[in-house]
Amino acid sequence: MSGKLFIVSAPSGAGKTSLVDEILTRLRPKCPIDRCVTYTSREIRPGEQEGIDFCYVSPQEFEKRLKEGFFLEWSKEYEHYYGSPKQVEKELKNGNSRILVIDRSGAKQVLKHVSDAVTVWIEVPSIAILRQRLLQRGVNNISQIEKRIEQAKKELQDEEKDRVYTYHVLNDDFDKAAKDLEEIFVKELNIL
H helices of 101-173, where? Predict the structure, then answer.
């Protein structure tokens, strides 16, 4: 039996990676599920680990892999490349469920290949809260944060006009959002 692919997306700073990490902690004892480690050409941030958070490659290496057809989806957001390896399709065929934490344009690309993927959009109560979270994270300068806020506004408008995601989860309270997200995974994976 094939595994199930979950796509979790949100504006930068909405908490998607933290929520997915929490879900994996809760679900791994019950089923074979993991996050697909995506590739990026950006620099590694303090606290991140190669092969756990991302596979970090140079822009030239990313472009080489792109030409070789290595990626299932890719984008160039925030001045860096991001992409998901096609390997995820093999993992699904082998019965392993996977989670892709990707942006909205990547989700649309993946859905062309894996039309039955379960899509989840993580929402935030307001742009002001998103800005506050990005500032607290302390990894971007003000100019970069403002670019991320403008991108978030566009993504939110696009999702409102043209819904790509089946499920929407509000992350205004982490524990409640994690519980809501866990319920979606349990339902979709038929976990008792």
Answer: 104-113, 127-137, 142-161
